[in-house]
From TrEMBL:
<comment type="similarity">
    <text>Belongs to the zinc-containing alcohol dehydrogenase family.</text>
</comment>
<keyword id="KW-0862">Zinc</keyword>
<feature type="domain" description="Enoyl reductase (ER)">
    <location>
        <begin position="11"/>
        <end position="342"/>
    </location>
</feature>
<dbReference type="InterPro" id="IPR011032">
    <property type="entry name" value="GroES-like_sf"/>
</dbReference>
<dbReference type="InterPro" id="IPR036291">
    <property type="entry name" value="NAD(P)-bd_dom_sf"/>
</dbReference>
<dbReference type="Pfam" id="PF00107">
    <property type="entry name" value="ADH_zinc_N"/>
</dbReference>
<dbReference type="InterPro" id="IPR002328">
    <property type="entry name" value="ADH_Zn_CS"/>
</dbReference>
<dbReference type="InterPro" id="IPR013149">
    <property type="entry name" value="ADH-like_C"/>
</dbReference>
<dbReference type="InterPro" id="IPR013154">
    <property type="entry name" value="ADH-like_N"/>
</dbReference>
<protein>
    <submittedName>
        <fullName>NAD(P)-dependent alcohol dehydrogenase</fullName>
        <ecNumber>1.1.-.-</ecNumber>
    </submittedName>
</protein>
<keyword id="KW-0479">Metal-binding</keyword>
<dbReference type="Pfam" id="PF08240">
    <property type="entry name" value="ADH_N"/>
</dbReference>
<dbReference type="InterPro" id="IPR047109">
    <property type="entry name" value="CAD-like"/>
</dbReference>
<keyword id="KW-0560">Oxidoreductase</keyword>
<dbReference type="InterPro" id="IPR020843">
    <property type="entry name" value="ER"/>
</dbReference>
<dbReference type="GO" id="GO:0016491">
    <property type="term" value="F:oxidoreductase activity"/>
</dbReference>
């Protein structure tokens, strides 16, 4: 077994503490990665706080992982020692179902194996990126382009792919009007990606305090949703709306009214409580309400290459491992521009 240093949490209301965890010895197709940076995702907070169901504590969160390959299994062909690589929200899947064969491993019919809070094929609980090392089968590792620094690469492995995938799937492109609900860790990535795809981009945020940032990142328009006139002015405007909000209840019907005929609202934020809607908001204009979860490995690599080509990088604040609890509090208070990234050398 390989011993790694980590930061773990022992319960929903417990602080993070220093820990040691075991990583499995390398199988023939495994890659050992020395983690350099790990992003903090709102999913980490939901899971650490037990908001998405029972958790097998102690838990080491983290599924935005960027690092360097330090060892490979005997039959590994994709990577070699020294390669710059990343790991996102999943570390394995069945590889056999129709969705896996299509390269949509995130929708594995048998359930993909989550990077943390899951159970791997050996029957062991998975532990995530708030640690110094991780062992992952090569098929679930992606290559980080040379012009993306490892610290800014980390959030791309969740925030980047979570927004790229629906924009790609629903065809954000020239001539399309795209709205992004929320200007946070996910939202600020969606703005940049949609802009690079050629769409006309509007940010719908609770206030205008981040307007300058939104416009600088590529938004064409920026509106405050706290202003009732926003919903009157923008009624029937958008071909596609990406909802990145995961921590606040919103009036879904009000946002459906902003869609054009045949428009789609896609939820990528994952609130801890159910959303409610009036189906008449959809029926009236043949609108669609959809969901999207990360992306497959092939699409994740496509996203990284796209971001490298268009110089799309998350805005980050690098912190030490001792600041994780404070960072969680600040995320919940929307006090971050726009993603915390842990320097794992401080673990």
């Amino acid at each position: 077994m390989i011993t790694a240093k980590a930061r773990a949490v022992d319960g929903p209301d417990k602080p993070f503490r220093a820990a040691e965890i075991n990583r499995r010895d390398l199988d023939s197709h495994d890659v050992l990665i020395e983690i350099k940076y790990a992003g903090i995702c709102h999913s980490d907070i939901h899971t650490a706080h037990g908001e998405w169901g029972p958790v097998n504590y102690p838990l080491v969160p983290g599924h935005e992982i960027a690092g360097i390959v330090t060892d490979v299994g005997a039959e590994v062909t994709k990577y070699k020692v020294g390669d710059r690589v990343g790991v996102g929200c999943m570390v394995d899947s069945c590889g056999e179902c129709v969705n896996c064969r299509k390269g949509e491993e995130q929708y594995c019919l048998k359930g993909n194996i989550q990077t943390y809070a899951g159970v791997d094929k050996y029957g062991e609980p998975t532990q995530g990126g708030y640690s110094t090392h991780i062992v992952v089968t090569e098929g679930f590792v992606v290559r980080i382009p040379d012009n993306i620094e490892l610290d800014v690469a980390a959030p791309l492995l969740c925030a980047g792919i979570t927004t790229f995938s629906p924009l790609n799937h629903w065809g954000a492109s020239p001539g399309k009007k795209v709205a992004v609900i929320g200007m946070g860790g996910l939202g600020h990535m969606a703005v940049q990606i949609a802009h690079a795809m050629g769409a006309e981009v509007t940010v719908l945020s609770q206030s205008l305090k981040k307007k300058d940032d939104g416009l600088q990142l590529g938004a064409d328009h920026y509106y405050a949703t706290s202003d009732p006139e926003t919903f009157e002015k923008l009624a029937g405007s958008f071909d596609l709306i990406i909802n990145t909000v995961s921590s606040a209840k919103i009036d879904m019907d009000a946002y459906f009214a902003l869609l054009t005929l045949d428009g789609t609202l896609v939820n990528v934020g994952a609130p801890g409580e159910p959303l409610s809607l009036n189906v008449m908001s959809l029926i009236g204009h043949r609108r669609s309400f959809a969901g999207s979860m990360i992306g497959g490995i092939r699409e994740t690599q496509e996203m990284l290459d796209f971001c490298a080509k268009h110089n799309i990088f998350p805005k980050i604040e690098v912190i030490s491992a001792d600041q994780i609890d404070e960072a969680y509090e600040r995320v919940l208070a929307s006090d971050v521009k726009y993603r915390f990234v842990i320097d794992t050398s401080t673990i």
